[in-house]
Every structure is written in C-alpha cells, then in structure tokens.
Amino acid sequence: MVTTENLRSRTTGHLLMVSVAVACGITGALGAVVFRFMIRLVQTAFFEGASGIESLFDGDLLGEGHNPLAIARGVEWYWRLMIPALGGLIVGPLIYVFAREAKGHGVPEVMAAVALRGGVMRRRVVAVKALASAICIGTGGSVGREGPIVQIGAALGSSIGQALRVPASQLRTIVGCGAAAGVAATFNAPIAGALFAAEIVVGNFAVAQLSPIVISSVVATVVSRYFLGNYPAFQVPPYGLVSPFELLPYTLAGLVAGLVAVVFMRSLYAVEDAFEKIPIPEYSKPALGGLLVGAIGIALPDVFGVGYSTIGDALTGNVPVAILGVLLVAKIAATSISIGSGGSGGIFAPSLFMGAVTGGFIGTYVHQWFPDSTATSGAYALVTMGAVVAAATHAPITAIIMIFELTQTIGIIPPLMAACVVSTLVSTLFQRDSIYTMKLRRRGIDLYEEEERNVLRGLYVHDIIDRAPERLSAGANFQTVVECVLGSEHHEFFVVTDRDQLLGVIHLRELTRMLAEQEVLRPLVVAGDLMQPNPPTVNENDHLHVVLQLFSPGLVEELAVVDADSQKMIGSVHKRDVINAYNREILRRDLAGSISSNVVVASRGQQVELGGGYVLQEIQPPPRFFGHTIRDLDIASTTGVQIVLLRKRDPDDGRSAVRVPTADDRIDEGDRLVIAGTRAAVESLDVI
User: What is the distance of C-alpha 113 from the center of its chain?
Assistant: First the structure.
C-alpha cells in the first residue's frame, strides 16, 4: 500500500540522487579540466623547458592550439629517449607508495569497486591517479586520458557518496555518475559518457540507475563547454556512404579491426607478464618502460601521448600509407610497454589511434581499386577507429555514439554501425573478455561469475534441506494417511520403502478430493494407490537455481532430496525456503556493500551505527588475543562480538592486507580487527 510517508520518502530519495548527480557532474567536469591542464603543464615543462612554462600562462592554458607532436619532433633525439624514462622514474614510486590501484588504465579498478566493494574507492586515488597519469601522458607515455578521468571522476563520486553515507546500491550509481561526468567532460560527449558509465562501469540500464547518470553527464558537458568551448574532438570532412557496395569493404574493415583489437589485448597482457618477471623493484619498472617507449619515439614520435595529432592527420588522409602500417605496430608496442610496465593511463585513445591508422591503410587501397564507389581513406579511418574501440571494450553501442559525438559526422553512422558490430563479434569469438574484464580475470575476479553467485548459483540444497520430511510406507492404509495429513503442515507426503528408497509422492491437493469419501475408501485404499510415481528429485549438492526451475510450474511445494549414490531419500527441500534463501542473499549482498562503505569510516577508529543497537568498528586487538586463533578465542560466544574483517600485517614489508578471516587465522601483534556487535560488547574488548 502506497502511503503519504512512502511517497515523501521516495521523493526525498529522488531529490537526493538528482542533487548528488549534479554535484558529480560539476566536480567531474572540473576534475577533467584540471587534469587536462596538468597534462599540458607537464608536456610544457619536459619538452619545452622553463621558457615554455613562462609563456604557458600567457597563452592557451588547456592546449587547444597546442601540437605536442610538432614539439616532440623538434627536440633532440636523446631527449625523446630520456623524457619518457624520466616520467616513469617519477610515476613508479608515486604509485607504489601512495595508491597502487592508480597503476594501469583505471577502468577495471572502477568496475571492481562497483561490483565487489559496493562502490567504495579511496579518496587519495583522485590525487594520485591525476598526478601519475598527467606525468605519464605529459612525458610521452603511449596512453590515453579517458581511463584516468573515469577513475578520477568515479573516485570523486565515491567520496561524495561515502560522505553522505548512502546505501551501497545508491553508491554504485553515484560512482557511475562520476565516471560519466569524466568521460562527457573530456570528450564533449554527453550521450557517450552516460552510455559508457551504464554499459561498462555500472552494467545496468535500469531507469533508476540511468537517470542520475544522464543528469551528471549533461551537467559535466555544460560545465566543460564553459571552459573548453563546444567543439568536436576531431575536425573531419563530411564523410558519408558513397554507394551501397561500400558496406562490403566497411564490413571487411570491421573484421580487421576485431583482429587488431585482439592482438592489442593479448600484447598488452603479454608485456605485463614479461615485466613482472624482470628481477628489478616494481617501482623502477615504469622507468624501464619509458626508456623503451622513448627508443620507439626516436624514429616515430607519433606514439607519444594520446596521439590526437596523428589521428587527425589519418582522418584527413594526410599520412602516407607505408607509415600507417608501421604506426599500427609501433603504437601497439608502445602502449603495451607503457601500461604493462606499470605506467598510468587509458587505452581508449590508443585504440582510436590504432583504428585510425588501420582504417587509413585499408581505405587507401579500397579507394584506389574502386575510386567511383568508395570514399577516401579518411572515412575508413573514422569507421575503423570506432570498430577497434568497440572490439576492445566489447561495447559497440558506446563506441558508435562516442565516435559520432567526437566527430559530429552523422553520415558515417550506417557503415560505423556495421563495422562496430562485426568487430565486436570477431573479438568475442577469439577473446571472451574485454580489455577491461581481462585484467580482472587475471586477478581471479570474474564479474560474470560473481554476478551469478550473488543470488542462487552460490547456494545449494544442503544449505536449506529439511531432514525430517513426512514419510509413509507403501502399505499404509487410508486412515493412516489421513491422520498423517491432519497432523502435519506439509503439502507433500513421500512414500518410501523400508530402506528409504523413494517410490512416489502424495500431494495434499489430490488427497483432499477424497476426504469426502473416506468412509468408503478406508478399507480399500493404501498409500501406494494414492501416490504419484517417479516424482522429480534433487541431490544435496544441486544449486538452488536448479531447484527453483523444478518449482517453477507451481504444482508442488516440496521436492524429495535423494542421495546421489544410493538414491535413498535423505530429506526434502521446500519452495518457501528457496525463496527465503534468495531474499536473504539479496539482503546479504546489499548489506555487504553497505558494510564496505562503513568500513572506511570504521577504519579511522570511529563507531559506525548499523541499526538495532549494533555498531561496526576497527580496533587493535587486546594483547591477550596475540598468538591465538579465532577458533581458540571463541570470541563470538564469549563476548558477543563478530570479527568481520582481519587486517593482517606482512612481517616482511610492514604493509597490511584486508581479508575475511577464517576460524584458523591467528591474531598477531600489529594486526587490526573490524568487529561488529552491540556497543557494550564492542567497548568491552578494551578498544584502543
């Protein structure tokens, strides 16, 4: 029933989310603008020196008229070699010491935070990611700026949500708002920003999640246009579909784009594995990577930074075809080295670069062979640019819309759609994961599997089995059956042999039809005559989603559980228990996300109210706990306190890692405990 109080609560909740979305849009846009200035400042400092910095504040602070490629070509060869290495020398220790999640391209970390931690991200990520990525890009690292700004915007959104202490479900959406704001402000692409956050980061197009994301994206675009102007990222001629025949070569370009994306993904993680095996400190590896990128940049400075200048040249057909092929190989190598060595930056701009040079290469020959029925190479560069992005991210819708907004060229949409769909199909054929989820899978995180396990795929029959179902022997007379029914709350009565072998089941709905004639039936009918033979059964280790499918016709309320080997009946499972397990699991997931949000506050030693008189707090364990396992201490029964998380200190480097404890975990000096219980019980542990 909808009450005035419920309506008021819903209205307040909607207004809160709208307000937060606006705040995320503003902060995300400002973050993007500041980040862009930081890149410009680093580029000027390293490639132009003091004189460049002096003139920077007299001209274009955000680099609209700035051509970093021309500047890189103008410096001596040894500076092209050393500047990326110097950048890596700064970035490596910065990430290693302050925020290791700032390493790499950023989007996977946001996806993991949304899916596994309820949207909780550390506030320091904003500063560390911005600084590390600005230095990496500004000194010539072959990376893009969209990954960092997604992580920066998402971290800003997470900080806002944590400050407001919203539930985990809302915090995830707010993180999506921050990510959308960052993308929209960076590329002047409000629709693509919203789609990117919904399709890739949040993974949900539901209206409740999408509406705040759209609002945030629009607000960020408006704010960024105030500082940057309303211009497309790339100025391209008005390309379009010249003839229907041209869809064939565009489809071929999409196929090649899918293969290029697969090569890029596998190269990226192969290089990452190679760098992990190099026996030098982790924080020094970005410097080595920068040195290798610099070596490539001596001959091909086009690989430095985001590469928008070269993309623009490819879109207008101003790059020689021989150079296009070389640039493709060089960019794959340079980007793989920059990110694989531990640098910080995104993969979106490199994917655009690879797509542009691939399409330009294909388009040059297509136009030579069919000059009257095909467009020039620039059109193919534009289409394949989107196709490589779609294949790498497995997000064709976002890629299509983003290329349109980046170029504002509507005539190219039909071939762009065809190429993006084909490239994505080719990519998924060879590579199940996108370039984002592939990184998570390598860490043992399967977002698809986690999503399934959140409900019934992680629960089993043995979790809810009823060990005492109603049993009847096949020879039981009608009177015995009736007495059993009248004295029971069950709806199904299982007929078994003396050795508990299941023979059939008697349904209450069938039996009630005979009660009116029980005087006649009493001497004539036995349980074996009333039963339905060969009823559906389940095993103790079956998933509950399988059980729910057997219940779905709605004809039974209880199923027999039989032993997988002997086929003896060992219990039953009730439909109501499956539904209750489903509801508990949903509640547990939301509670887990909420707790993860509250742990951030609890880690500062503050008590977090959980409701009902319960609190959450991180404490230093009392000395009497040292050297004992959680099982030995039996804390739950002796104090009424539950240990939720254990922050275990590594004796080698002094760092700590948080994990869910087991009964065999030993508590040592230097460890920390996140505990939950009543306020009195928590305080009784001599909280420090």
Answer: 7
pTM of the model: 0.68
Helix crossing, 285-299 with 247-276: angle to 10°?
Answer: 140
Q: 């299509």: which residue's tokens?
A: 400
Distance between CA atoms of 531 and 346, rounded to whole angstroms? 65
Domains for the chain: give ranges and CATH numbers.
Answer: 13-228 (1.10.3080.10), 246-449 (1.10.3080.10), 461-579 (3.10.580.10), 603-683 (3.30.70.1450)
* Distance in angstroms (rounded) separating the CA atoms of residues 53 and 245: 52
Q: Which two tokens stand for residue 46?
A: 């390293």
Q: Are 356 and 384 in contact (CB under 8 A)?
A: yes
Tens-digit pLDDT profile for residues 7-60: 454 555 678 888 888 999 999 889 888 888 888 888 888 887 656 555 655 555
The count of other CB atoms within 10 Å of the CB of residue 96 is: 18
Helices marked H in 504-607 — which ranges?
508-511, 518-521, 527-530, 544-551, 575-602
One-character DSSP codes across 51-71: HHHHHHTTS-TT-TT--HHHH
Q: What is the DSSP letter of 197?
A: I
* Strand duo 642-649 + 569-574: pairing: unpaired
CB 283 within 8 A of CB 381: no
- E-only strand ranges, 191-348: none
Q: Judging by DSSP bridges, how do beta strands 614-619 and 656-659 pair with one another?
A: unpaired
Alpha helices (H) in 65-167, listed in sequence order: 68-74, 77-98, 107-116, 124-138, 146-164
Q: Which stretch of DSSP H or E encloses residue 29?
A: helix 4-47
Is 685 exposed, middle or buried (CB count within 10 Å of its CB: 0-12, 13-18, 19+)?
Answer: buried
Strands 614-619 and 608-611: antiparallel
What does the block give as tokens for 353?
């670069």
Token code pair at residue 603 = 């880690």
pLDDT < 50 positions in the chain? 1-2, 5-7, 9, 64-65, 207, 450, 452-454, 601, 604, 686-688
Is residue 336 within 8 A of residue 271, CB to CB? The reply is: yes
Structure tokens at 443: 């860490």
Give the chain's radius of gyration (CA, Å): 31
Chain segment 123-151, per-residue pLDDT in tens: 777 788 888 888 988 888 888 888 888 88
Does residue 97 contact residue 286 with C-beta atoms inside 8 Å?
no
Say which residue the tokens 């970390």 belong to: 109
Pairing of strands 614-619, 672-678: antiparallel
